[in-house]
Amino acid sequence: MRVVMFGYQTWGHRTLQALLDSEHEVALVVTHPKSDHAYERIWSDSVADLATEHGVEVVIRDRPDDDELFQKLKEVAPDVIVATNWRTWIPPHIFTLPKHGTLNVHDSLLPAYAGFSPLIWALINDEKEVGVTAHMMDETLDAGDIVLQRAVPVGPRDTTADLFHKTLELFGPITVDGLAEIAKGRTDFTKQDRSKASFFHKRAEEDLRIDWTWEAEELDRLVRAQCAPYPSAFCYHRGKRLEIVEAEVSRARYGGTPGRIFYREGDGVAIVAGAEARRGRNHALLVKKVRTEDGRELAATEYFTHMGGYLTSRP
Fold first, then answer.
1. Looking at the chain, which terminus has fewer C-beta neighbours within 10 angstroms, N or C?
2. Helical residues (DSSP H) of 129-261, grouped into ranges
3. What does the pLDDT look like over 2-51, one tens digit per residue?
4. Quick check: 104 and 26 in contact, CB under 8 A?
5. d(CA 49, CA 64)
6. Residue 41's pLDDT is what?
7. Using one digit for the tens of pLDDT, what is the confidence trace for 91-108?
8. How would you label 9-18 residue by residue, b for 16+ Cβ within 10 Å and e otherwise?
9. Cα separation of 232 and 245, whole Å?
10. Degrees (nearest 5) of the Cα angle 31, 59, 176?
11. CA-to-CA distance for 304 and 287, rounded, in angstroms?
């Protein structure tokens, strides 16, 4: 089939490579300009560079809703559009232009985790598996009929970076296999159960802020979700920002006030956590590595020279 691809960052790069290696003809690539947004500097392999290397014409757009692009697409006359990690709304007159419509590839097990940063949100929420969905685009974001869906397990100590690499391996194969289903003339794809849908926003600074009333298990997942190369989860110590780089759940249970710098346990420092911590039934967040405002990365046992005092959510 003759394909136009809308894609961005490493997800788009991997998808484009699979299309270039397939039997399909990539007639045009549409991608976003480079961005200074913190999350868009991560996993930023260039779709434009890959297309250019293979002699495929590239169009750069923030939004694909102008007449010039529409006319270009009509001239190219694709059989299908493939969209992967496209960051802005694609209007109906574009996604319905090809005779086979538009196949969108999204890194969650839809209908759950539609929208942005699905792997981070899924890890924070203790999901047992994550995955990738290839679905037909319709007027509601990430809500179209499911062509294919593939899952991978979330390991007990996985970070978002681990989940990225696991799911990235699915993008190329699910795209090519999804196109094979479309090429067969299939249209009887699986309707999404909208009663199970959830839609998540982009991550921002406020989403990294540690709330010590969360249970230690939740905070452990937040720290793993905000692993390198993502911005780290943070709090404040003595009025200065302190990033929590590595942590786990304590073995012992600690009672008291959330945020209290309490006790050395093994190679970490136990910070009291949980809204019900006063009852003494909670595990603590065992902080193992921190990063200071000036960028120094230290073992928690080196940074916390004395026990006592508090870590807070705000200065």
1. C
2. 160-183, 216-225
3. 999 999 999 999 999 999 999 999 999 999 998 877 777 788 899 999 99
4. no
5. 19
6. 78
7. 999 999 999 999 999 999
8. bbbbbbbbbb
9. 6
10. 55
11. 10
